[in-house]
From TrEMBL:
Listed Low complexity bias regions: 1186-1199
Superkingdom in the source lineage: Eukaryota
Annotated GO biological process: cell division; DNA repair; mitotic sister chromatid cohesion
Biased composition (Acidic residues): 1164-1181
Metal-binding keyword on record: no
Compositionally skewed regions (Basic and acidic residues) per UniProt: 1119-1136
CDD domains per UniProt: PDS5
Keywords of the record: Cell cycle, Cell division, Mitosis, Nucleus
Originating species: Fibroporia radiculosa
InterPro entries: ARM-like, ARM-type_fold, Pds5
Comp. bias intervals (Basic residues): 1151-1160, 1211-1240
Record protein name field: Sister chromatid cohesion protein
Length: 1240
């Protein structure tokens, strides 16, 4: 073994073996390059700790020779740079060159790197890589900071390196460059301004994929000095520009701060306090920019730490929600989106701020808050937003400004659309957070027509949209089953009022479709203005059609202009597409195709009218259900609980219940939809075990067969089933089977058999079977009168003696104090009585055009009037729970019979008794009576005189009844042609005054006259205008030129009402600055209620006499002053009337409780299913919510103006009315005596 010496651990310094000359004449480029390559190889292998630097002197001098540094060959310069870098490494920490030489060397280094380092495929890439690595690891680059012109050189270094970043070099190269720049920043005593600008520019350069300082090793890891230098420099820039109000520069500076925050937030330590100060400055623009920047910084991925580090800044930023400038508050709200998503820990503070902004004085801020939530993704809305917050946002759908309503509704629709897949999968979190949205949206539709228009759009576009093409079938075929199931599943979370609104929006009622079809036909006839015959008539028809359609929209004038513009286009293809969309037989595929093509073509032809026509198509077409829905609806009914009580909780049962609602609604209002599904319906009624399915399909078959007798099934099996059902005890099955039976080819024979069988078995039938038989007879009496008359004497005798006159035993399940009984709680005996009244009514309807009409109707009409006058009973000791049902049925029957001219005059003699049904003590009676009255008035089947009855609802303690009346009058006044409006409302004013004069609570006293004035005011609120004020005033004066047809006492009442109306009209004319001119035309007063005065002396005496008390004018003046007070003050002072359940009993017992909190249909859902769909309301208004479920925001402001004396009138007056009505009608002399005594 060789012995080891003590010097073995300290080897002799290595000397350079390279001794060739690098500079000299005749040295070729190749030779020089080889020598430099050899030198580089040897230098690279030498260790800095073990090198004899004296051996490097020769090459050290030659390498910086200008002939080498300025050589034309790139290879020579690349190897030279590597050798110089190696020398600096070996000589470190002392540089072997002078300052000037070092300047040239470093300029040479960075020139080589900027021009040669382009990518792995570029020449001499390894040499450039070696050079960069050496500068990075050895840190020899810090020598630059000691050079005289260091600032200029540093600027070049930074610019060159930032320029190289765009080449997308290897990650390691970028790290080397970052290390070099960091070393320079750390070493320099003060960072040159141009270098700082160069660094900042990288964060603002949109072409830079990512600033160099954010890649790998960043300035975050540099010394505190470097960070402070950059931070203070940037802060100075911001301060200087802010002071100079150079907002463009300040905006640029703020953009830079945002970029710095994303890449190197530690550099902003000194900038954040400056931003905080900017939140307090006077300039709105500076506060707005600071609010935006801080909002984005808080919303960044490091926002949680940022809030913890700068809590004061966070709190001051939150206060910007109350900034005096709208622009700042808007900026704050817009910045809250990211904060809401990324700062769940601050949820309470965030929600508080956003809740406050939902009620901001400026509508743009409120709209921005709503829009913010519409931009959230599903996960954020689910996990980072509370349900209360969402309800508050969607509640802005009732905002008075359209922009806020639209954004709130759009938010509701979009969030529900995002959440529906999870709701459909019954995800508990999604159901709790979002499933209530459709109900909330739909319930807002009853507020105003403007809100309803927005609800329509949101429901159609987001909640129940037309389906996109299915990926599982042909490209153009939509998934009809999924489309229908979405409707049924959405209804799972709707309450009854919301369901009624949805039914109204569906277009199934078809109340507006004829108006829209008429418009299209008028457009075709108008032919773009090129008309061959009857030009004036064609133009007038178009104008009328346009006006009727426009009246259905919130902005009639704009809509009318758009409709005329559409007519001027005169494109036949558009007309054809519209007709396809409106066709009740259209399937889903055709509807989607036609709608899309129509809107696409219209956008190309005239884009400004697209919004109006999109609404037109939406309202005129069947977008929620159509004939494509029927197979799925039948299947869902089939899969539900066969009992069909609707109270099951399973998914299948709820879907079946909702499917049943739709099929019943279609049967009643648009049976044409069933036209192509008669075979399926006939097959379904064979399922005897599923009672609900049989009922629904029987009703559908009966409806479609009544619509077109040719569609009635004629096979033997179906006929046998129908005959079996018609004689069974299931009332619904029997009723619809009887109706279907009347449509068969041999209907007379079959109906005769049924009548004979029922007549023979009535005496022996049990109560349930009797009720079913009477239901059948009610149908046959109307639809097959000849068959009914074969046994009419037997049947009518039985119904009168053993059904109607039969005293019912109180039911153990029914509260004796309750005045109303629901359908489900009705006993078979009571049901039979109600149906017996229908038999009487339908028999009169069937014979209305015959010579025996009056003979048949007189006892029936007398019976109906008796029921009204005796509070719904034939005997004084009848149970209370039966009175309401019979009273209501009698009133509705009289309304139906009044539609026939043969009975109108006879019923008119008892008009007052019928009219005050709208003031019945029972809410369900008032509401149902109003619904039926409005339906008949809208279809114009009932005489115009009945249009005054809705105005009696002004004192109703529940908003529902008054709202229903008001909605009808407003819509009718807006949509009716002028001549019809004149007949139904304006000239009917004299009838309204006459009705008030005959009102059972009328008295010329200080207590009663204000209440009578309320009636007149309600009428004037809805009808009076500048155009008709002269007519109405003329009619009120004319009332004192005639006498009442009944008695002088009522004449004096009429004169007092006349004077009262004149005073009220004058007051309104003064308030509105309207001129009250004499009416130029002539008006014929109704001869059935008024008579001429006997002579001129009597007329003069009446005109000179004042029938109102002396103090009337004083309280009228006080009332006028109160009406002119600011609405805001009035709202705070109004006194809300307590909810009325029923009037007090005269014996002092407690008030009767209402049966149910929910509004239910008082009669069968198909109470008048025999009526045509045209009987439905033009407004397409849904049933109102029950009083206990209505929110205050849904009622107009006027509804809360009820005084305590109104409560006294509506409660006590009706009690007095019931006691006196018979005397009033039959014994007018007593009434007059009482009136005279009161005057005395």
């Amino acid at each position: 073994m060789v012995a080891q010496t003590r010097t073995a651990a300290h080897p002799t310094p290595r000397k350079l073996k390279f001794h060739d000359k690098l500079v000299g004449k005749g040295l070729s480029t190749d030779t020089l390059q080889k020598k430099l390559k050899a030198l580089h190889a040897e230098l690279a292998e030498m260790d800095q700790e073990n090198v004899d630097v004296s051996s490097l002197s020769a090459v050290r001098k030659e390498l910086i020779n200008t002939s080498i540094l300025l050589h034309k060959d790139r290879g020579v310069k690349a190897y030279t740079a590597c050798c110089l870098a190696d020398l600096l490494r070996l000589y470190a920490p002392d540089a072997p060159y002078t300052h000037n030489e070092l300047r040239d060397i470093f300029q040479f280094f960075f020139r080589q790197l900027s021009t040669g380092l382009k990518g792995p495929d570029s020449p001499y890439y390894n040499e450039y890589f070696h050079l960069l690595e050496s500068l990075s690891t050895v840190k020899s680059v810090v020598l630059v900071c000691d050079l005289p012109n260091a600032d200029e050189l540093m600027v070049d270094v930074f610019r060159d390196f930032f320029g190289m970043v765009r080449r997308d070099l290897a990650k390691k190269i970028e790290l080397f460059m970052a290390d070099i720049l960091i070393a320079l920043i750390d070493e320099c005593q003060s960072l040159p301004g141009d270098v700082l600008e160069s660094i900042m520019a990288q964060f603002m350069d949109k072409n830079t994929v990512r600033p160099l300082s954010s890649r790998g090793s960043t300035p975050n890891g540099s010394s505190a000095y470097g960070s402070a230098c950059i931070s203070s420099g940037r802060a100075n820039i911001i301060v200087s520009h802010s002071r100079d109000e150079e907002f463009d520069e300040v905006q640029t500076a703020h953009e830079l701060i945002k970029q710095l925050n994303r890449s190197c937030p530690s550099l902003l330590h000194n900038v954040v306090p400056q931003l905080e100060e900017e939140l307090r400055v006077e300039e709105n623009q500076i506060r707005m920019m600071a609010t935006q920047v801080l909002g984005e910084m808080f919303a960044d991925k490091g926002g949680t730490d940022f809030v913890k580090k700068y809590p004061t800044t966070w709190n001051i930023w939150l206060l910007r929600r109350n900034d005096k400038a709208v622009s700042v508050r808007l900026t704050f709200v817009e910045a809250m989106k990211g904060v809401l998503i990324n700062l769940p820990e601050q949820r309470e503070a965030i929600e508080g701020a956003l809740d406050a902004k939902l009620y901001d004085p400026d509508e743009k801020v409120r709209a921005a808050v709503c829009k913010l939530f519409s931009q959230l993704d599903y996960e954020t809305a689910l996990h980072h937003v509370s349900e209360d917050q969402l309800r508050s946002v969607i509640g802005r759908g009732l905002d008075k400004k359209h922009i806020v309503r639209a954004e709130a509704m759009a938010t509701a629709g979009r969030l529900y659309s995002l959440a529906y897949p999870e709701i459909e999968n019954n995800d508990p979190a999604a159901v709790k957070q979002f499933a209530w949205i459709p109900e909330a949206v739909l319930r807002m539709a009853v507020a105003t027509s403007e809100v309803k228009a927005v609800v329509e759009e949101v429901v159609a576009e987001h909640i129940l949209p037309l389906p996109p093409p299915s990926s599982t079938t042909k490209v153009s075929d939509p998934d009809e089953g999924a489309w229908t199931d979405r409707l049924l599943h959405t209804m799972k979370y709707l309450d009854e009022p919301a369901t009624n609104v949805l039914l109204g929006l569906s277009g199934v009622k078809g109340t507006v479709r004829p108006i829209y079809e008429k418009f299209v036909q008028c457009c075709i006839e108008n032919n773009g203005g090129v008309i061959d015959e009857d030009e004036e008539a064609v133009v007038e028809n178009l104008n009328v059609a346009v006006k009727r359609v426009a009246s259905q929209f919130p902005e009639p004038q704009k809509v009318a202009e758009d409709l005329h513009a559409f007519a001027d286009l005169n494109e036949g293809r558009l007309y054809k597409l519209l007709k396809t969309c409106m066709d009740t037989q259209v399937d889903l595929k055709s509807l989607i195709k036609s709608t899309n093509e129509f809107l696409r073509r219209l956008e190309q032809a005239s884009s400004p009218i697209v919004p109006t026509m999109a609404t037109f198509v939406r309202r005129a077409s069947l977008r929620f259900v159509n004939q494509s829905s029927i197979p799925t609806l039948i299947k869902r009914v089939q899969k539900g609980d066969s009992s069909g009580d609707g109270y099951g909780s399973s998914q299948a049962e709820m879907s079946a219940h909702n499917a049943q609602i739709w099929m019943n609604f279609i049967s009643k209002h648009c049976p044409a939809i069933y036209q192509s599904h008669v075979g399926e319906l006939a097959k379904a009624i064979a399922d005897d075990k599923n009672a609900r399915l049989v009922e629904v399909c029987l009703q559908a078959l009966a409806a479609v067969a009544s619509w077109d007798n040719k569609l009635a099934p004629n096979d033997r099996r179906t006929a046998d089933r129908v005959m079996r059902f018609v004689l069974q005890s299931n009332i619904r099955h029997a009723k619809f089977s009887a109706r279907l039976l009347t449509c068969f080819k041999n209907a007379e024979e079959l109906c005769g058999q049924v009548v004979d069988t029922i007549a023979e078995g009535l005496q022996e039938a049990d109560p349930e079977l009797v009720a079913a038989h009477v239901a059948v007879l009610a149908q046959l009496a109307l639809k097959s009168p000849d068959a009914f008359e074969q046994k009419s004497d037997v049947i009518m005798a039985f119904l009168l003696k053993q059904v109607l006159m039969q005293k019912l035993d109180p039911s153990d399940d029914i509260d004796m104090d309750q005045e109303w009984v629901e359908d489900s709680a009705m006993s078979p005996e009571l049901r039979a009585q109600v149906l017996a009244l229908k038999v009487c009514r339908n028999r009169c309807r069937a014979h209305a055009s015959t010579e025996t009409a009056l003979d048949i109707s007189r006892p029936v009409l007398k019976m109906f009037v008796t029921l009204l006058q005796h509070n719904g009973s034939f005997t004084a000791d009848a149970p209370d729970e039966t009175k309401g049902r019979l009273r209501l049925q009698a009133a509705i029957s009289l309304l139906h019979l009044a539609c026939y001219s043969a009975y109108a005059d006879e019923i008119g003699t008892n008009f007052v008794s019928l009219a005050i049904t709208v003031q019945d003590p029972c809410y369900q009676i008032r509401m149902t009576f109003m619904d039926k009255l409005v339906t008949l008035l809208t279809s114009r089947k009932i005489p115009p005189q009945y249009s005054v009855i809705p105005f009696l609802s002004v004192h109703d303690p529940e908003a529902d009844v008054k709202n229903r009346a008001k909605a009808y009058v407003v819509t009718a006044m807006r949509g009716m042609p002028k001549a019809i409006r004149l007949n139904y409302f304006e000239t009917a004013f004299i009838r309204f005054l006459h009705l008030l004069a005959h009102h059972p609570d009328f008295a010329v006293t200080e207590d009663n006259l204000p209440d009578i004035a309320k009636y007149i005011d309600f009428y004037l609120d809805l009808v009076l205008s500048m155009e008709n004020i002269s007519l109405l005033f003329h009619l009120s004066m004319k009332a004192k030129t005639v006498r009442d047809a009944v008695s002088h006492a009522y004449s004096e009442n009429l004169y007092a009402v006349s004077e009262l109306a004149q005073h009220l009209i004058r007051a309104r004319a003064k308030v509105h600055s309207w001129s009250l001119e004499s009416y130029p035309g002539k008006v014929r007063l109704p001869a059935d209620i008024l008579r001429p005065l006997p002579n001129a002396e009597a007329a003069n005496e009446i005109l000179k006499t004042v029938y109102l008390p002396e103090n009337t004018l004083s309280w009228l003046s006080d009332q006028r002053k109160a009406a002119q007070e600011p609405k805001e003050k009035a709202r705070t002072e109004r006194k809300t009337t307590g909810k009325r359940k029923a009037v007090p009993k005269t014996n002092g017992s407690s008030k009767r409780p209402r049966t149910s909190a929910k509004r239910r249909k008082v009669e069968d859902t198909d109470e008048d299913e025999e009526s045509s769909p045209s009987e439905s309301s033009d407004e397409d208004e849904p049933k109102s919510a029950p009083p206990s479920e209505r929110s205050g925001s849904e009622a107009p402001a006027e509804q809360s103006e009820t005084e305590e004396k109104e409560e006294k009138l509506s409660r006590g007056a009706r009690t007095r009315a019931k006691a006196r009505i018979k005397q009033q009608i039959k014994k007018p002399v007593k009434r007059r005596t009482k009136h005279q005594s009161s005057d005395d």
